[in-house]
Design brief:
The protein is mainly alpha-helical and 142 residues long. Helices cover 70% and strands 3% of the residues.
Amino acid sequence: MKCSVALISTLLAMQLQYILANSEKLMEIAEICRQKEGADEGAIEALKERKLLEYPHGKCMAACIFEEMGIIKDNAFNKEGTMSHAEKYFGDQKDKIEKVKEAFNSCETEINGSTGDRCEVANKIIVCSKMNNAPPLLRSQL
């Protein structure tokens, strides 16, 4: 179980790390989400250090960020919002858009099994993306 938490934490951080390092807008969103989810100021550092899921409220901070991006809507995976985000971000890179589509088609049922628990939905989205080698969706400007 401890290895699973560490692995999932690493996967989450790998996707979110780039944005936190390079996007002022995402830093604003991460701070808003940190406060909204009741995490202390160390949560932002935990995210940068690839330890967010080990941190109290970490999955829920990720869920909050995904909600802002349209990837989670009404406590559930939003496939349309995810694909819209992918199309905006990847533009002409049709191969990457197709990889995102294939990844989420392959594990949509598993992700949707968490509907209602937005924090677990965020966790499963990240795991699905990484396990299916989908291009990260969180590198775009928000």
